[in-house]
């Protein structure tokens, strides 16, 4: 794929794409063959740690163990290890009819959306968020109402009640992508109570929670105690450099009363037993110190970006309270699609942010997202080129 001019990219999957029209994943396809300067997608592309590499060296044993063990036992071991690593001890571990292993969190999302659509015609979705979420929901003909982060995190209870009463379901990504904002314990409890009172389904996407200790309080005990109908999407896919071998889990409340199991069976039989074992091994490594090490690694990479762009006129970043594996760069005077095109010309791929703002794209017109789960040397090189383009102004 090549950059043809400042507006057009040739997309490896679907031909020519307009920079204004492409969705975020299409921007990510454009980057995927640039191993050194792809800071577009939020997948983990850093080198493995020593103990992670040891697991990969042990892959034949992982395969053999997976061959001879019943798959529900492998699923159980995998979710126990993964949910335990993330502090989610109140999840319904013993109810295998409520835990669905999927190839990816987007597949879990698709299954949830199809099940929701049998009952729900409108849904309040966090704004902004990664655009494949609104696109999947819209694909099921569900009407979307923006749930602004300001209202979600700080708005008066009565205003939240008004919004929830107007919809059949609520969908929140926490920590959010790309803002990194986390739904705190009190707000989750409040939202679950409100959803219970109006019989709205509360859906959470917690794919990025591994990076942020503030998102690792036990969400499931709060959801279970609230009595609301809920579904949670969990993801192993953002954390570890496993070449996209990953699991997305869909976990549901006992009272959800939507055909999740039926839709799941329409789409898949199950994920590979070998991947379940691999996930268990990486999660055990995470619990044994790997997760804290990863958080430190991301913090250092965030500093590489901030240091590398320091002092540029009109260029700012978020405060200190962000922990996600992506960093936003705010540019006072530059359009993100122009900067994206100039960067692509110099071989560096970032994400322009307008599509995250699915209800009002103009709000993302002057920001970029840089992925941090990369090797520091590659990240530093990308940041030097980004600085050059921004300096040209
Ligand atoms: C991010 C892309 C899709 C997604 C990337 C992502 N996947 N569209 N199914 O994994 O933040 O870059 O979440």
Write the SSE topology.
Blueprint: E1 8-11, E2 15-18, H1 24-31, H2 50-57, H3 59-68, H4 71-85, E3 99-102, H5 105-116, E4 122-127, H6 132-139, E5 143-148, H7 149-154, H8 157-165, E6 169-173, H9 185-198, E7 201-205, H10 219-226, E8 230-235, E9 248-252, H11 260-267, H12 273-308, E10 315-317, E11 326-331, H13 336-345, E12 351-352, E13 367-371, H14 376-392
Parallel strand pairs: 4-5, 4-6, 6-7, 7-8
Antiparallel strand pairs: 1-2, 3-9, 8-9, 10-11, 11-13, 12-13
Helix pairs in contact: 3-12, 4-12, 5-6, 5-11, 8-9, 9-10, 12-14
Bound molecules: (4S)-5-carbamimidamido-4-hydroxy-2-oxopentanoic acid.
The site of (4S)-5-carbamimidamido-4-hydroxy-2-oxopentanoic acid has 8 residues, from helix 1.
Summarize the structure.
The chain is built from 14 helices and 13 strands.
Properties at a glance:
393 residues, alpha/beta, Aspartate Aminotransferase, domain 2, 2 domains, 4-stranded antiparallel sheet, 43% helix, binds (4S)-5-carbamimidamido-4-hydroxy-2-oxopentanoic acid
Task: Report what the structure shows.
It is built from 14 helices and 13 strands. The chain has a 7-stranded mixed β-sheet with strand order 3-9-8-7-6-4-5, with helices on both faces. Mean pLDDT is 94; it is low at 1-7 and 12-16. It is globular and about 55 Å long. It has 2 domains: 2-49 and 289-392, Aspartate Aminotransferase, domain 1, CATH 3.90.1150.10; 51-284, Type I PLP-dependent aspartate aminotransferase-like (Major domain) (Aspartate Aminotransferase, domain 2, 3-Layer(aba) Sandwich). It has helices at 24-31, 50-57, 59-68, 71-85, 105-116, 132-139, 149-154, 157-165, 185-198, 219-226, 260-267, 273-308, 336-345, 376-392; strands spanning 8-11, 15-18, 99-102, 122-127, 143-148, 169-173, 201-205, 230-235, 248-252, 315-317, 326-331, 351-352, 367-371. Bound molecules: (4S)-5-carbamimidamido-4-hydroxy-2-oxopentanoic acid (EGV).
């Amino acid at each position: 794929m090549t950059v043809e001019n400042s507006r057009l990219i040739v997309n490896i999957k679907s031909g020519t794409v307009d920079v204004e029209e492409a969705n975020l994943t299409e921007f990510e396809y454009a980057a995927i063959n640039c191993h050194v300067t792809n800071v577009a997608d939020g997948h983990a592309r850093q080198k493995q740690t020593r103990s992670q590499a040891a697991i990969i060296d042990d892959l034949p044993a992982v395969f053999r163990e997976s061959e001879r063990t019943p798959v529900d036992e492998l699923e159980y071991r995998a979710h126990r290890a993964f949910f335990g690593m993330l502090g989610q001890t109140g999840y319904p571990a013993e109810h295998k009819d409520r835990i669905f292993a999927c190839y990816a969190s987007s597949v879990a999302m698709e299954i949830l959306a199809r099940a929701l659509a049998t009952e729900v015609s409108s849904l309040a979705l966090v704004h902004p968020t990664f655009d494949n979420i609104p696109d999947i929901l819209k694909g099921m003909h569900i009407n979307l109402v923006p749930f602004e982060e300001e209202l979600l995190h700080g708005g008066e209870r009565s205003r939240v009640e008004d919004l929830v009463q107007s919809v059949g379901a609520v969908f929140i990504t926490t920590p959010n992508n790309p803002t990194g904002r986390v739904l705190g314990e009190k707000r989750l409890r409040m939202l679950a109570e409100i959803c219970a009172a109006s019989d709205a389904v509360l859906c959470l996407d917690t794919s990025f929670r591994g990076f942020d200790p503030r998102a690792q309080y036990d969400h499931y005990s709060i959801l279970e105690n609230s009595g609301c109908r809920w579904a949670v999407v969990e993801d192993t896919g953002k954390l570890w450099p496993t070449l996209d071998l990953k699991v997305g889990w869909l976990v549901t409340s006992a009272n959800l009363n939507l055909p999740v199991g039926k839709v799941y069976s329409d789409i898949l039989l199950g994920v590979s037993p070998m991947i379940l074992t691999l996930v268990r091994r990486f999660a055990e490594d995470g619990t044994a110190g790997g997760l804290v090490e990863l958080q430190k690694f991301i913090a250092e990479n965030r500093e590489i970006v901030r240091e590398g762009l320091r002092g540029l006129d009109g260029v700012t970043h978020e405060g200190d309270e962000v922990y996600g594996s992506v960093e936003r760069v705010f540019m006072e005077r530059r359009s993100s699609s122009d900067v994206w095109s100039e960067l692509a010309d110099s071989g560096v791929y970032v994400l322009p942010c307008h599509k995250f703002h699915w209800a009002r794209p103009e709000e993302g017109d002057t920001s970029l997202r840089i992925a941090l789960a990369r090797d520091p040397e590659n990240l530093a090189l990308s940041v030097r080129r980004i600085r050059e383009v921004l300096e040209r102004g």
